[in-house]
Amino acid sequence: MLRFKLKYLLNNKQNRLILMLTAGVSLLITLIGLFSYREYRNALDTELNTPNVELLQINVDVTNRAFRESDNKAVDLSFHPAVLKYIEAATGDNARIAAEPQEYLKTLATEPDVHAISVIKFKDHSVLSSGYGYVSSWENAPEHAWESWIGEIKEKPLLIKRRLYTGTDSRLSETELLSLARPVVENGEVTGAVLIDLDYDMLFSKMYTHLSNYQLVYNLEGELIYPKLNLPFPLADMQNVLKDIDVSPFAHVRIGGQAYMANQTFSNVTGWRLISLVPMEQLLKNVKIARNMMLMLSLISIAVGLSAIYYYNFAAFRPLKRINKLLLPEQKAAGQGGLYDLEPVIGKLVGDFQSKSLVADWSLPELRSKFVQDLITRSIGTQETQTKFEHYFGGWTEGPFETLALSIDRHTQWAAGFIEEDQLLLKYAMINIVHEYFEASWRSVIAAPQKDSLVILLQAKSREEKPLYTDARKLADLILEVLNISVSIGIGEQAGAIAQVPRSYSEAQLALSYRLYEGYAHVRVYSHAENKYEESSGSADEAWKQEMLSALKSSDARAAQEWIRRWSAETRKKGIQPQKVFRTVDDLLEEILHIAAAGGYPLPAELADYTWHQVSTMELQEIEDMLCSIAVHMAGAFGAHRQSKEFLLVQNLIKYMEENLQFNIGLQDIASHVNMGVSSVSTIFKEETGTTVYDYLTNLRIDKACELLQDSTLRIADIALQVGYQNENSFIRVFRKIKSTTPGKFRENSKSSKEYADQPKPRHSGVSEDSE
To answer: Which residue ranges does the record assign to the HTH araC/xylS-type domain (predicted)?
Structure first.
């Protein structure tokens, strides 16, 4: 019966087509999975090989530097006159001659990583040490474990041996040493040796290690030098690794059934070989899962195909049609359809899933940056903050977080040297440097809330205390070295939770602003003491600005510069909060821009493209120099303008108005005074003063009225007549519009202790009362 059913199913053309498609799709998925696994592994080898080799080279340089310093001492000692005199001396003179070289040995042995320095004499087997002095025989020396191999120095120019301290000093019992020996040559013959004992632990503590790999050091004889304890692998297995890797810089090896990627490099100073082993199991875990999932998908597709064939005319086909209908609702099912619908259905499912996964992966960095920018600008609420953090920051913990504000010094001057595309490229490079610099120890997200600055959100990958100030200092130096961009960095206090990051960023911004006093390329950590200064702007700020602007308008550049320098010195002396200083300067420059725009004066180069960042990224001395330069330019512009005929014409009109305030003069009278038309006078006056003739005349009358209200006892009606108003009510209405109070209230506030000449008017007089 089963044979009959199979024969029937295979005779169906549609079934055969489904079977071929199923087999083809399964084979293709399998090949893609295996190919992807191989390519990923090759790419992983390439990506990991370079940083591991670089780490090994760094460690080689560290050990080379330590040994080179000691080797230089040994070489110097082998040629030192006092040492040579001791080596050449007769045995009976050794004790007498040893005093001078021993003092020199003690001087050189003061480094913390040097235990002792010894001079060994082959002729009579005597030894002179910085630790125990002169001993006539090696065997009687407190520590002479080097006796068995020191003779090798006659065949080799340099010996480096790892050994245990075997002397009588209980404090150094079982201490691990690295002994470096150099020969002392006399007339072509090795007559002695200089031996320097180095602290093993202190030397190798300077090496850089990585959490995910193992590092081992072997000497030329294949003996293990490092590490000395907690060996990750049996020594016998490591001998096989040494044979497998031989002299190649990179190889795949197996230890205890586990696969490792091995890298090695050699020291040209010590002859040691440094080997790093990176376990491949963890690295390939995800790609193996992906490969197995592809293989599983292949098996599933085969099962689906066979099931589809087997249940061709059964209920299993009905759910498939329903799925197809849900995915493609615009297509109406015609008839029963066929199982060939399976391929587009699965293809759409897999394709949609893959597309969405790729979009999510590509968008994640941008989503994180946008989240940080919204967070520090307080554009999102607490609940939305927590939800997005959980979605976007997989692998991060709830806290703590570190916040840095990084700003380009002299941003406006820096930006002027590049076109916009180049600026974007340099900022992109700077972001990449920041990511790569913090990648080893920190999780990082970078956003650019302003043109001149970046905000860097960090979280340590381990619980160890991280020297963030030192890292920030090195980062600033690295950006200056690589990109030639000077940056300053502010560091806020640690944020215990993601919701506290805006507060930490504000603190970082405040710390950064102290670039005003500390100069460029500075790194500063926020301190609560910085928040003690008053934020509000006092009258003193307005006073110096008005004096400075008055000097400019009078074309007195020297006086304007003197006010600027006086303000700068006072600011530096008081240590005023930088943000307040920036606002003061910004207000001054905005006022100068407004005056220049109203009068049509040419702008100085410093204000050609002015923005807030121009001031906030400068130090105080440069701000002072910039303001002095602007003052010289604007004073010259004002001076040139004061000689123009338009300026002189307007001054003539103003003088005429001031001398005739008591008369009912109008625009026609003012224009007739200079024999010009009303339209021409109005245009020129508006361009020169920024206001109309009528408004200027009205303000002159009200200012004169204020003087009379304060300094005289005249009635308000009389004052109105003296400033050109025939009707008292009109005068009161205009006065209230300009001064936001009535003349009577103004006089009461100014001269509350004096009697006024005005007596209350009867209600039937027909004149409006001067009420509030």
So the answer is: 651-749
Report the length, in residues, of the chain.
Answer: 772
- Tokens 């006024």 belong to 756
Residue corresponding to tokens 């972001």: 431
Least confident of 101-105, 292-296, 308-312, 449-453: 308-312
Residues 537, 580 contacting (CB under 8 angstroms): yes
Find the mean pLDDT for residues 92-100.
Answer: 83
Query: Are residues 37 and 295 in contact, defined by beta-carbon separation less than 8 angstroms?
Result: no
Tokens 């806290």, residue located: 399
CA–CA–CA angle 706, 737, 553 (5° rounding) = 60
Which residues, at least 6 apart from 643, have a Cβ–Cβ distance to it below 8 Å?
none
Residue 692: count other Cβ atoms within 10 Å of its Cβ. Answer: 13
Handedness of CA 528, 534, 536, 542 (dihedral sign): negative
CA dist 592 and 635 (Å) reads 11
Question: Would you state the structure tokens that stand for residue 551, as one six-digit string?
Answer: 């000097």
Please choose, from the candidates 680, 681, 659, the residue with its C-alpha nearest in 3D space to the C-alpha of residue 670. 681
pLDDT digits (tens, 9 = 90+) for 225-278: 777 656 677 777 777 777 777 777 778 788 877 777 787 888 777 778 878 777
Determine the average pLDDT of the residues in 125-154: 85
Q: How far apart are CA 746 and CA 734, in angstroms?
A: 13
Residue 120: strand pairing partners: 127, 193
- d(CA 398, CA 500) in angstroms, rounded, equals 11
pLDDT in tens, 651-683: 788 888 888 888 888 888 888 888 888 888 888
Are the beta carbons of 589 and 607 closer than 8 angstroms?
A: yes
The Cα–Cα gap between 529 and 551 comes to: 37
Confidence of residue 311 (pLDDT cuts 50, 70, 90): low
- Sheet order of strands, 159-164 included: 133-135, 126-129, 114-121, 189-199, 176-186, 159-164
For residues 277 and 259, what is the distance between their CA atoms, to the nearest angstrom?
A: 9
Amino acid identity, residue 618?
A: M
State yes or no: pLDDT of 334 exceeds 70. Answer: no
Q: State the Cα torsion 129-133-137-140 to the nearest 10°.
A: -100
> Measuring CA to CA, how many Å separate 378 from each of 489, 491, 496, 704?
22, 19, 17, 50
Residue 533 has pLDDT above 90, yes or no: no
Q: What is the pTM of this model?
A: 0.45
Q: Does residue 227 have a cis bond before it (omega within 30 degrees)? A: yes
C-alpha separations of 295 from 1, 286, 465 in Å: 33, 14, 44
Give the confidence band of 491 by pLDDT, cuts at 50, 70, 90: very high
- Measured from the Cβ of residue 390, the count of other Cβ atoms closer than 10 Å reads 12
Q: Of 173-187, 472-486, 739-753, where does mean pLDDT reach its minimum? A: 739-753
Q: Which of 291, 494, 298 is nearest to 401 (CA)?
A: 494
Q: What pLDDT digit, counting tens, does each position of 23-68 carry?
A: 888 788 878 877 776 766 666 666 666 777 777 778 777 777 777 8
Q: Is the pLDDT of residue 756 over 50?
A: no
CA distances 539 to 86, 403, 494, 628, 763, Å, are: 82, 36, 37, 22, 44
Q: What share of the chain is helix, strand, coil (3-state, %, to 5)?
A: 60, 15, 25
Residues 6 or more apart whose Cβ sits within 8 Å of residue 102: 128, 129, 130, 133, 134
Q: Confidence class of residue 110 from pLDDT cuts 50, 70 and 90? A: confident
DSSP states along 606-656: GGTT--HHHHHTS-HHHHHHHHHHHHHHHHHHHHHHHTSHHHHHHHHHHHH
Backbone angles phi, psi at 647, to 5 degrees: -60, -45
CB 341 within 8 A of CB 321: yes
